[in-house]
Amino acid sequence: MINITIPTPDVTITKQNSPELSNIYGFTDFHLITREKGGIFMFYNDKEEMLFVGKARKLRPRIKKHFEDTVSPIKNHRNEITKIEVCIVEDPVDREIYETYIINKYRAKYNIDKVLYN
């Protein structure tokens, strides 16, 4: 049996109510997420339910793209996201394994690819 331990998040940002600073869907702290490193990211709602898991070679641009892109799987659910967790994972194979594992272990609501459960 393979035992996978999900990394502890390196950065967690939360949605602000009525933010005074420039924001994207209520998030003002994107600057805390690395622009240069790869890893995995997880979007949660206010009930701590996992909504979406993704991976990226460059985390900040990829996460921001989910809030701007017209083809993102979460495009109709962006307002549900209240927390973003980010784990730095440089190895692309490790990112792939973590993403697939987390999607299936926590049944991420809006992931449609890599789903192995019914």
Describe the protein's architecture and organization.
This protein has 118 residues and is an alpha+beta fold. It is built from two helices and four strands. A hairpin with a 5-residue loop joins β2 and β3. The longest helix has 14 residues, at 92-105. The mean pLDDT is 93.
List the helices and strands and how they pair.
Blueprint: E1 11-14, E2 39-44, E3 50-56, H1 59-68, E4 83-88, H2 92-105
Antiparallel strand pairs: 1-4, 2-3, 2-4
Low-confidence stretches: none
Number of strands: 4
Strand content: 15-25%
Order of helices and strands: EEEHEH
Output mean pLDDT. 93
Q: Compute the number of helices.
A: 2
Rg, Cα atoms, Å: 14 Å
Overall SS class: alpha+beta
Helicity range? 10-25%
Shape: globular
Spatial sequence of strands, sheet with the most strands: 1-4-2-3
- How widely separated are the two ends? 22 Å
Biggest sheet character: 4 strands, antiparallel
